């Protein structure tokens, strides 16, 4: 579900997590790096991010005027985050 870029609060509802546990689920997804829930949430989200970026890069290489600025942005982000 995170691969569909749904936020943790919506995933909690779809998973039928009890209302009084939803905030805790969201907190785990965002902050508890050593848990399977955190890893699953971020793996799904990052897989989609990766796939979208691959598409943008392919389009930029093919000369898409809309994709080129995005590809440049991704390169700058990568350099800053290293």
Report on this model:
The structure is a single chain. With 82 residues, this protein is mostly helical. The protein has helices at 8-14, 22-31, 36-61, 67-81. The protein starts with 7 loop residues before the first helix and ends with a helix.
SSE layout and pairing:
Layout: H1 8-14, H2 22-31, H3 36-61, H4 67-81
Helix pairs in contact: 1-2, 2-3, 3-4
Q: Measure the end-to-end span.
A: 29 Å
Integer-rounded radius of gyration: 16 Å
Total strands: 0
Structural class: mainly alpha
Mean pLDDT reading: 95
Largest sheet: none
Oligomer: single chain
Jot down its keywords.
71% helix, 82 residues
Short description:
The chain has 82 residues and is mainly alpha-helical. Helix content is 71%, strand content 0%.
């Amino acid at each position: 579900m995170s691969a569909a870029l749904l936020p943790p609060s919506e995933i909690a509802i779809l998973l039928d997590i009890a209302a009084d546990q939803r905030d805790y689920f969201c907190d785990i997804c965002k902050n508890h790096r050593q848990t399977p829930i955190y890893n699953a949430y971020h793996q799904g989200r990052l897989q989609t991010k990766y796939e979208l970026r691959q598409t943008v890069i392919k389009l930029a290489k093919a000369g898409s005027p809309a994709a080129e600025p995005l590809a440049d942005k991704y390169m700058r982000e990568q350099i800053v985050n290293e």
